Amino acid sequence: MAHPEGTHTYRFASCMNTLPPSFLDELFRVSAVPDIISFAGGLPDASLFDVEGIKKAMESVFDDYGSIALQYTTTDGYRPLREIISRRYYSRLGLHVNPDEIQILNGSQQALDLTAKILTNPNDKILIERPGYLGAIEAFSFYRPSFSSINPDTEGPDPAELKNYIQSDNPVFFYGIPNSQNPSGLTWSDKRRKEVAEILSESDCLLYEDDAFGELFFDGKAREPVMKYLPDQGLMSGSFSKIIAPGLRIGWIRAPPQVLCAFNRAKQAADLHSNLFSQMVMTQYLEKNDIEQRTRMIAAKYGERCRLMIDLIEDLLSDSIHHTIPSGGMFLMLTLPGSMHSMNVFEHGIKEGVAVMPGIPFYIDDGGNSTIRLNFSASSETQIQIGMERLARVFHRL
Ligand SMILES: Cc1ncc(COP(=O)(O)O)c(C=O)c1O
């Protein structure tokens, strides 16, 4: 017998009950309020997207390839695009990565989902940084792992803690963001990269190196990837989202052959392949434009905004509020004095017309009560000035 409308009881998978609460709905709601200056989100600056260049690339895909661009394709991704990514690994980082070691994905976010899908069983240990990227915690959580998190010092993840966790927890993989981490903005030192690789190489724990921000160093210089020291144990994801356009949804993973094979099977089951048209447009765009120069321009712009935000933090906020000093990326992090709660700052900020991201969803414990993430990529200099003045008023009141 049919249920009366609106009374059906839905049977969800049990993982739905163990997911962390979602902050994003609240954030999107808040960001839509007119006149709010938002440092809470994580968007690249849309005014830096090369709309004309991408339009031309799109037209030439239709002119040159017609209906081929609208057909199904193979799961691994458009070969010419993988060749460009492979060449850029060599030119940027001196890494020899064969195009066959690369799987194109629907944004690097998909790599997070597929990694946990192919590598973990429920209750397996995943090691993350403390704080860690919210999108990774959310993606991994669907597979019901058990998380541990490692504190950083000024150079990156604490080596003694890493050793201990590897010995005591036997994690399947360690997920880290060595370049301009989201949310902290911190970058691992060269020395720490080697130490982390050395520690991992004595175990069978894989490294997942998320390189979403590696092309956004303000000084335009690349840092050495940890994967260089761990080719057989390293997965490394990359993305065109931050340097070209996130809406095209093109990211990738580089992984050792056996892992890549598992990725390929999981990707095929999930969505057959990434959008071919989008991959071809991206390829045309990369072939016809000086992407390295464009990337340097974007990174330099974000660097100016970051420096402005830091100057204003130091001028307007109390010395008891500490901040990280990013050398790239899109975020920095504030640590509040013990008496202040990040949710309080968030709520008062909204009343004052400025949105910040409480640290809470970046922690698997209560560390986020005293931290706040600020985004500097999506606001103009004027907005940063006004927004930080508003934030200063919030801090003076609390
Ligand atoms: C650290 C990190 N990894 C991965 C992603 C996913 O990006 P995309 O799927 O657009 O490549 C993001 C997005 O902000 C991110 O901050």
UniProtKB/TrEMBL annotation:
<dbReference type="InterPro" id="IPR004839">
    <property type="entry name" value="Aminotransferase_I/II_large"/>
</dbReference>
<comment type="similarity">
    <text>Belongs to the class-I pyridoxal-phosphate-dependent aminotransferase family.</text>
</comment>
<keyword id="KW-0808">Transferase</keyword>
<dbReference type="GO" id="GO:1901605">
    <property type="term" value="P:alpha-amino acid metabolic process"/>
</dbReference>
<comment type="subunit">
    <text>Homodimer.</text>
</comment>
<dbReference type="InterPro" id="IPR015421">
    <property type="entry name" value="PyrdxlP-dep_Trfase_major"/>
</dbReference>
<feature type="domain" description="Aminotransferase class I/classII large">
    <location>
        <begin position="51"/>
        <end position="391"/>
    </location>
</feature>
<dbReference type="Pfam" id="PF00155">
    <property type="entry name" value="Aminotran_1_2"/>
</dbReference>
<keyword id="KW-0663">Pyridoxal phosphate</keyword>
<dbReference type="GO" id="GO:0008483">
    <property type="term" value="F:transaminase activity"/>
</dbReference>
<keyword id="KW-0032">Aminotransferase</keyword>
<protein>
    <submittedName>
        <fullName>PLP-dependent aminotransferase family protein</fullName>
    </submittedName>
</protein>
<dbReference type="GO" id="GO:0030170">
    <property type="term" value="F:pyridoxal phosphate binding"/>
</dbReference>
<dbReference type="InterPro" id="IPR015422">
    <property type="entry name" value="PyrdxlP-dep_Trfase_small"/>
</dbReference>
<dbReference type="InterPro" id="IPR015424">
    <property type="entry name" value="PyrdxlP-dep_Trfase"/>
</dbReference>
<dbReference type="InterPro" id="IPR050859">
    <property type="entry name" value="Class-I_PLP-dep_aminotransf"/>
</dbReference>
